[in-house]
Specification:
Elements lengths: L12 E6 L2 E6 L1 E4 L2 E7 L10 E8 L2 E5 L5 H11 L6 E8 L5 E17 L2 E2 L8 E6 L2 E5 L18 E10 L9 E4 L2 E10 L8 E8 L3 E6 L4 H12 L9 E9 L4 E17 L11 E7 L2 E6 L7
Antiparallel strand pairs: 1-2, 1-7, 3-6, 4-5, 6-10, 7-8, 8-10, 8-11, 8-14, 9-13, 12-17, 13-16, 14-15, 16-19, 17-18, 18-19, 18-20
């Protein structure tokens, strides 16, 4: 029996398109598919539980990426964090080994719902990735097109991004920030609400409030004097008015210590200091974890992270 020419393919390359422009290659993409809730009716005279589906809805799309994304991609992320409503149409593209499209998922009127920055550890040797989630109002799947993807990996190669390379600064803490060895992952969440309209099957989506995470750092207890003083004044003595809050910044650096991304923190307030558990005769460095709330975060992609 003769076989046809259709073959399986490996889904090893993924690209993102925004408003018709190539936005960059990404590590992984998931979600975005249409689904519906199943409604089960009460048993009738025929003794059968009849079922039907409710309105169609679409999963959020999650993208995992490193550096060297397009300028428009980072501007979309930045605008979302800055309380500016920016909707994008685009496509999630699956490519084969020679960069030809084997499928695409077009999405429309998408809003960013989550921006996740990786945890930082001065001893880590793994590659760092950023996670972006966005909610489309609707999507459409298109089968294999065979078209060439018009894009490039960037100017040369992507800048290597390691969790070990970072620079933290907080006003008034002196050299304490220079001895921070860990910063926990930061995830900024944008609440999105659905606005159903009677004559439309697809719900319109509108942005609501933004939730900013706590800043959690770990450093050697020998250099934490300024943090303990701030904690005593802010928490124990109760001097925690707005003017006692601090500002700061966190830079994610490339392997040659050039800035890739910068987060600016406003309204930092310390609320917890926790020394790490240690055992007698241990040779580990005594460290302390410091937790601060944050009222606002801004994001900026630096020149070495942007390819166009």
């Amino acid at each position: 029996m003769a076989t046809n020419d259709k073959r399986a393919y490996t889904a090893g390359k993924f690209a993102l398109d925004l408003n018709g422009d190539f936005a960059g290659w990404v590590s992984s993409i998931e979600g975005g598919h249409a689904t519906a809730d199943v409604v089960t009716e009460k048993v009738g005279s025929d003794l059968i539980q009849h079922k039907h589906i409710a309105g169609v809805k679409y999963e959020d799309i999650s993208v995992n990426c490193g550096t060297s994304m397009s300028k428009s991609f980072y501007e979309w992320v930045q605008a979302s964090i800055d309380h500016k409503v920016t909707r994008f149409d685009g496509a999630v593209i699956t490519a084969d080994f020679n960069h030809k499209e084997v499928g695409r998922l077009n999405f429309f009127q998408a809003l960013v719902t989550e921006v996740g920055f990786p945890a930082l550890d001065a001893s880590s040797k793994d590659a760092a990735k950023m996670t972006i989630k966005f909610a489309p109002e609707y999507t459409r799947m298109i089968s294999k097109t065979g078209a060439n993807i018009k894009g490039e990996l960037g100017k040369g190669q992507q800048k290597k991004w390691l969790p070990a390379n970072f620079k933290l600064e907080i006003d008034g803490l002196g050299d304490a920030c220079k001895h921070v060895n860990k910063v926990e992952a930061l995830t900024i969440k944008q609440k999105v609400v659905e606005n159903p309209v009677g004559e439309l099957r697809d719900c319109q989506k509108e942005p609501a409030h933004i939730e900013f995470p706590n800043l959690v750092i770990t450093l050697s207890e020998a250099f934490a004097d300024k943090l303990y003083e701030w904690h005593e004044d802010f928490v124990i003595k109760g001097h925690n008015s707005n003017d006692k809050e601090k500002t700061g910044s966190l830079q994610y650096l490339s392997s040659d210590l050039k800035p890739l991304f910068t987060l600016e923190f406003k309204g930092l307030g310390i609320f917890k200091m926790t020394p790490e558990k240690v055992e007698a005769h241990s040779e580990n460095i005594r460290r302390v974890k410091c937790e601060m709330y944050c009222e606002q975060i801004t994001f900026k992609a630096e020149g070495d992270a942007v390819w166009s």
